[in-house]
Write a structure and sequence with these properties.
single chain, 23% strand, alpha/beta, GMP Synthetase, Chain A, domain 3
């Protein structure tokens, strides 16, 4: 007899009842001489003592600029040591850090600054093809609350970073007045449609989540974590940075943005024990022609998260990257982010085919998407979570908050999941991503996992495209392995895929359309933009008429 799809994460360790600055101060006291931060591309090394001094100087610099508890400061930059200093400096004085996606253009920048009512902005001068200075100048007049902007590596930045010793006492008073439940961070979700929503997170939210994610990897003070994922996202600043500082670990920044060779170089030269990444990052690292030249023997663990991981990629990380204790994490920005995690001593099956069990001090359940009722284990439904990790709400948006968090405090994720009898969870897709072909419910991940087993396929993404007869048909976007020779015409590609699938998966799951690509459209965090893929496919396949057909 099946049991309800509900579980509560225990935990030998109680929740940290601290603010971020108090937790950092405790770590500094215990591990002051341990390296806190290494920025490989900048040639910067800071011990915890040195990092703490920089943070507190910067905090007084912010006070001197007129910022105080509850004010919002935007931070717009890729991964630099300066980003981390600002992250902790704002927390010192209760300033709410507003993370700005480095990929934002002027419209998105203005929206985030206005919606959060930012009083100040700190930014890199530029990144890739984006001239941040010019873009800020363009939107300055549109943001009535914005009083000042400072760019890294200018005289104004140097002055801010130098701080004001006369304000140290005031800074200490503010720090003493902070509580763990004060909001300290606004992160804009990378939604594929509509305007971004600002998830409002507290000290308790993000400090504890980073603490438990790192703790479940069994990392010890002095261990080194390579963090190539972006800081503007929870993966970088919470699971990475706060995970490190709450345990006395070393943050290793390989580059300002993801470059697979620089990641492996950093791991090898800094002798990192832990490596973070989304699946596309690990796929890129494993595909390097000189992969075998990097000494990754120091690696033991890490986190793969952000999007579903192909089973074969997980196995390769274990076998080829020495990540025998690698863990899978699952969650969302609104939940700080992690709700489930595998453990290093979990079986290979559990670590490759599930996203783990409920995180410490977190409740999870699988609900009927229509009724909201908890379903039975083994059935597919919506993943919901409740506990310390759930955001206080979307900034200045009570209506969207009420849509996401029900009256009982459950966060409804929009993800489709199955909880096995042993409590392990498998994410099978997004409610909105589920493809309905002729009345059959098809989950793209199932087909992606199967096609990934083909030796000539490095990565694959499956989407639904409009069809007048069936409502939707399946389309596979295939990224071949280097040197693979795939058929060139659409008809031959389809025949090639069909031949591989025949007799192995149901006929309605075989993609009708196949496209060969070198890259997928994706967000900065490595999430595939399937909405954009669908739009491109409709145009390329001339399916505009089919897209207008209404189906019951």
């Amino acid at each position: 007899m099946s049991s309800p799809a509900y579980a509560s994460g225990g935990g030998d360790q109680p929740l940290l009842d601290q603010t971020i600055p108090d937790n950092l101060a405790a770590t500094v006291q215990a591990h002051g001489q341990v390296e806190a931060l290494v920025s490989c591309h900048q040639g910067i090394r800071l011990s915890y003592d040195e990092f703490h001094q920089a943070v507190r100087r910067c905090a007084t610099g912010l006070l001197a600029r007129g910022l105080g508890k509850g004010d919002r400061l935007g931070l717009w930059s890729p991964n630099y040591a300066e980003w981390v200093v600002v992250q902790y400096a704002t927390a010192e004085i209760g300033v709410i850090l507003v993370n700005i996606n480095p990929a934002y253009r002027t419209h998105e920048l203005a929206y985030a600054l206005n919606q959060s009512e930012c009083k100040a902005l700190i930014a890199a001068p530029s990144f890739a093809s984006s001239d941040y200075q010019a873009m800020v100048a363009e939107v300055q007049d549109e943001v009535s609350t914005l009083e000042w902007t400072i760019f890294f590596w200018t005289s104004e930045w140097d002055e801010l970073l130098a701080g004001d010793d006369a304000l140290l006492a005031e800074s200490a008073q503010i720090r003493a007045s902070l509580t763990p439940d004060d909001p300290i961070n606004i992160q804009y979700t990378s939604g594929t449609t509509g305007f971004p929503k600002g998830a409002t997170l507290s000290h308790r939210n993000i400090l504890n989540n980073g603490y438990f994610v790192a703790g479940l990897q069994a990392l010890q003070p002095g261990d080194r974590m390579c963090i190539p994922v972006p800081f503007y996202h929870c993966f970088g600043m919470v699971m990475g940075n706060l995970g490190c500082t709450s345990h006395g670990l070393t943050m290793v920044i390989p580059n300002d943005s993801f470059k697979p060779d620089l990641v492996l170089k950093a791991v090898a030269e800094e002798r990192c024990q832990s490596l973070y990444g989304v699946p596309t990052m690990f796929i890129g690292e494993l595909a390097l022609p000189d992969f075998e030249d990097y000494d990754l023997s120091s690696l033991r663990t890490g986190v793969m998260a952000g999007s579903p991981c192909p089973v074969e990629v997980m196995k390769q990380c274990i076998e080829r990257m020495h990540m025998s204790d690698v863990t899978i994490c699952y969650g969302m920005t609104e939940t700080s982010p992690v709700s489930t995690q595998t453990l290093p001593d979990d079986s290979l099956m559990h670590r490759t085919e599930t996203v783990g069990r409920a995180h410490p001090h977190v409740e999870i359940r699988i609900a009927d998407p229509e009724t909201g009722a908890t379903i039975e284990r083994g059935e597919t439904g919506e993943f919901c979570t409740r506990g310390y990790s759930v955001m206080s709400g979307y900034w200045n948006d009570p209506n969207k908050t009420a849509e996401a968090i029900d009256d009982e405090g459950w966060m409804h994720t929009g993800d489709l999941a199955v909880m096995a009898e042993d409590g392990y969870v498998n994410i099978v897709g997004r409610i909105k991503d589920m493809i309905i072909r002729g009345g059959e419910n098809v989950y793209p991940r199932e087909i992606e996992e199967f096609l990934y087993t083909h030796p000539d396929i490095e990565d694959v993404q499956v989407i639904g495209v409009p069809d007048e007869r069936y409502g939707e048909e399946l389309m596979a976007w295939i990224k071949p392995v280097a040197g693979a020779s795939l058929p060139e015409t659409p008809a031959d590609l389809h025949a090639w895929v069909k031949a591989y699938c025949d007799g192995k998966i149901a006929h309605f799951k075989i993609p009708r359309y196949v496209k060969v690509v070198t890259e997928f459209p994706m967000t900065v965090t490595g999430k595939i933009r399937k909405v954009e893929m669908r739009e491109m496919a409709i145009a390329e396949l001339d399916l505009q008429t089919a897209s207008r057909v209404k189906h019951a």
